[in-house]
Write a structure and sequence with these properties.
With 388 residues, the chain is α/β, with parallel strands linked by helices. Helices cover 14% and strands 21% of the residues. The strands form three sheets. Strands 1-12-13-11-8-10 form a six-stranded mixed β-sheet, sandwiched between helices. The protein has a five-stranded mixed β-sheet with strand order 2-6-5-4-3. Helix 2 packs across helix 4. The longest helix has 25 residues.
């Protein structure tokens, strides 16, 4: 039976945090004023069944009022030292940078602990446009961060991370080409023009996103406009986490364009974990998107950014919106190009008036023909299929 587990975000302010299957790690020390975290999610066909009751994600006014005093917070394994239960499976985590709301699910066995491997270049789907080597600070920086005391596995991790980025760019670029867009992801490159992977040794073993973000800053890589995509260690897949945004403004002033971005993948997961986390770092999925789950994702499955996350609107989840030919639940990048990505959205549509990852104003994408009229009909570029 096909299964899918991806991360969950509960928006409670302009900035959110998303986590994918991160067992046993704390959600503290994340430098955002108000955020939401979902540590893991197990979703199978039974959980996907139509009519399944969604979990409530909005804490009641009384619960929100209850989690205010210091004596209401206590240690919770996997979350942190200052945690207060909001009810309905949710917790408020208090950090030095503000409060965050989090909810925990068991990690999915399908990916947990599995180590992805470098594949042959011959099986990597070609992109309509190759990645763009960016020379300014508005770009993606790939990082392999070695935990303190752990062996350096860069001989394996560097080609794997590079492969994952090439696959991610192919999925995004090919989807743009299907709808008349010439687009690719902006990335730091090496002298040969390949995506560059910076290998850094961490000064600690703390896998919290806040601790990783601070380590990246200590090593001079927390740069305005730069999205750091960090692989922590080389173990079996442990999921991922990312900072994101609920900013709906369509222009270059959108918050994701200027804040230093951070997306973390724990271990050797399939490439779609990188793309999912990077998607959140670029500002997907908005809380008011047409098919929003109400918890940071969308309800169209077979979509990298969608799954039934238990949000208040996840009762609208459907597994037959964009059925994939091989049952792969990460087959599409915005399956109906109506929730977070469309290079030429119809006039008056949601993505024409809200933040759209394919917009020229998204500084993480390269669009050489911005401002030039392009066709709007679907093209013939083949869809990217997952290799794992």
């Amino acid at each position: 039976m096909p299964t899918k587990k991806l991360l969950s975000v509960i928006t409670s302010g302009a900035i959110t945090v998303s986590v994918m299957a991160l067992p046993g790690t704390a959600a503290a020390d994340i430098p955002v004023p108000v955020a939401a975290v979902d540590i893991g999610a197990t979703l199978d066909d039974h959980a996907h069944a139509e009519g399944a009751a969604p979990h409530s994600h909005g804490p009641s006014e009384s619960a929100a009022e209850r989690c205010r005093r210091a004596d209401e917070f206590a240690p919770v394994p996997g979350l942190g030292d200052r945690v207060c239960a909001l009810g309905n499976g949710q917790f408020k985590v208090r950090t030095a940078h503000g409060d965050m709301v989090t909810h925990i699910d068991a990690p999915l066995g399908k990916d947990k602990g599995v180590r992805d491997a470098v594949g042959s270049p011959a099986i990597t789907t070609l992109a309509a446009r190759s990645h763009h080597c960016a020379s300014d600070s508005y770009r993606i920086q790939l990082v392999y961060l070695v935990p303190a005391g752990a062996p350096d596995a860069s001989a394996t991790m560097v080609p794997l991370i590079r492969q994952h980025f090439i696959e991610s760019n192919a999925m995004v670029s090919n989807r743009a080409a299907e709808y008349g867009g010439d687009l690719s992801l902006r990335v730091v490159c090496d002298a040969s023009g390949q995506p560059a992977v910076r290998v850094l040794r961490s000064s600690h073993n703390n896998s919290d996103i806040g601790a990783i973000d601070q380590e990246i800053a200590r090593q001079g890589q927390r740069i305005t406009g730069q999205d750091n995509v960090v692989y922590w260690g080389d173990g079996g897949c442990g999921g991922g986490v990312a900072y994101g945004s609920g900013d709906t403004r369509p222009g270059a002033e959108n918050a994701v364009n200027n804040a230093p971005g951070i997306a973390v993948v724990y271990g050797r997961c399939p490439f779609t974990y990188m793309l999912h986390e990077q998607g959140h770092s670029m500002g997907a999925v908005l809380p008011n998107t047409p098919n929003s789950s109400g918890a940071g994702h969308c309800n169209d499955d077979a979509d990298v950014m969608c799954y039934k996350d238990g949000g208040p609107h996840s009762g609208n989840y459907r597994s037959d919106v964009c059925p994939s030919p091989n049952g792969n639940l990460d087959y599409y990048w915005d399956c109906n190009v109506n929730d977070y990505f469309h290079p030429n959205p119809p006039a008056g549509s949601f993505l024409a008036t809200n933040w759209n990852l394919a917009r020229c104003s998204n500084r993480m994408v390269y669009r050489p023909n911005c401002g030039v009229a392009q066709r709007t009909a679907g093209g013939t570029v083949p869809k990217m299929t997952q290799l794992h």
